[in-house]
Every structure is written in C-alpha cells, then in structure tokens.
Design a protein that fits this description.
Helices cover 42% and strands 12% of the residues. It is of the alpha/beta class and 187 residues long. The chain has a single domain, classed as Crotonobetainyl-coa:carnitine coa-transferase, domain 1 (Rossmann fold, 3-Layer(aba) Sandwich). The protein has a 5-stranded parallel sheet with strand order 3-2-1-4-5, sandwiched between helices.
Length: 187
C-alpha cells in the first residue's frame, strides 16, 4: 500500500462546527497526524464522535484541554513546538487571548504554518464577530439567489460556504506545505 502524502505532518486543530473540521479532516484523510484540541464537553454539539461531528473528525486524534487554565495553554504550546500546522476558526480574539495568535506562535516556532479561518477577518469593524456559514451566505447575498419558482427566497438549504471554506482552507495549507515537500525530496 502506498504511503499517504501527508505522512509526517502534524496538525494542531482548534476548529469547531463545520468549515474548520472539514479542512483538517481532509488533511487527516491524506495522512497528516491531526490532533484535535477540544473542550471537555462541547456544549452545543453533543457527543464528539456521532453524526456530523463523527464524519468531520474521522482519522483525528483528540485531546481535551482547558485553554482557560495556564497549564492547559502551556500544554497546547508544547504540542505546537512539535507540530507543523495550527488551524483555528474562531474570531481572532480567542487565539489572541490564549497567546496562540500567529505572532505568538511564530515566536515559539518560526516555521509554523497557521491557518485562521475567521469568518470576518482579522481587522475591521466586524473582526471579533462570530460567524457561521449561513450567516456569511446571507451577508454575501447568496441566500437571496436561492429562490423557489415564484422568486420567493427558499432559504440556504445547507451551508455551502462552510464546505467551500473547508476545502479552500485545506488547499491553502497544502500550498504552504509544498515548499517543505520540495526541500525534503531526495536528490
């Protein structure tokens, strides 16, 4: 059996809901060791490994870390020191408060690759807003494009933007990893 292309790549996954977990699942499916950092009890999602969450988190390792505790944040930093990629999809405020924003992580590990999938970006009036795929679809006008035969809005149906963001996120990480793959190539 052929070796998977991302074998030897370690990803620390701070994602939740759909877009972020999809991005890291794609990496895990291609052989990356993905370590999902979870809360002890993910309140709104219920059990971790059933239904949608089970599918989005397949092939991942899991650790519950209380990031509000200094010991938890230090444990996460220890994982980061031996990792290649960090992915989150919070508003930028969260990682900054944990001391896990790009600037902080780069000081710990200069070659770390970070993907922060904040729905409203890292600057501007809405930067610290929390976003979900259906919200972003509505703001972009996509929801209005989905109408019944009479032209009345039919709603979003499913979260297309979460799927597109997850796939784009995985692709962005692959692009960032590509120079490493080339430099590891035998002569």
């Amino acid at each position: 059996m052929a070796e998977l292309p991302l074998k030897g790549i370690r990803v620390i996954d701070f994602t939740w809901i759909v877009a972020g977990p999809l991005a890291t699942r794609i990496l895990a499916d291609q052989g990356a060791e993905v370590i999902k950092v979870e809360r002890k009890v993910p309140a709104m999602l219920g059990p971790r490994r059933i239904g949608l969450q089970g599918g989005l988190n397949r092939n991942k390792l899991s650790v519950a870390i209380n990031m509000a505790e200094p010991r938890g944040a230090e444990l996460a930093r220890r994982l980061l020191r031996i990792s290649d990629v960090v992915v989150d999809n919070f508003s930028p405020r969260v990682m900054r408060e944990w001391g896990m924003d790009y600037q902080s992580l780069n000081a710990i590990k200069p070659d770390i690759i970070c993907l922060s999938m904040s729905g409203f970006g890292h600057s501007g009036a809405r930067a610290n807003y929390v976003s979900y795929g259906p919200t972003l679809q509505a703001l972009a006008g996509y929801t209005m494009m989905m109408a019944d035969a009479s032209g009345r809005p039919a709603g979003f149906g499913y979260s297309y933007s979460d799927m597109a963001a997850g796939q784009a996120g995985a692709l962005a990480i692959l692009i960032a990893l590509w120079p490493r793959k080339i430099s590891l190539k035998p002569d």
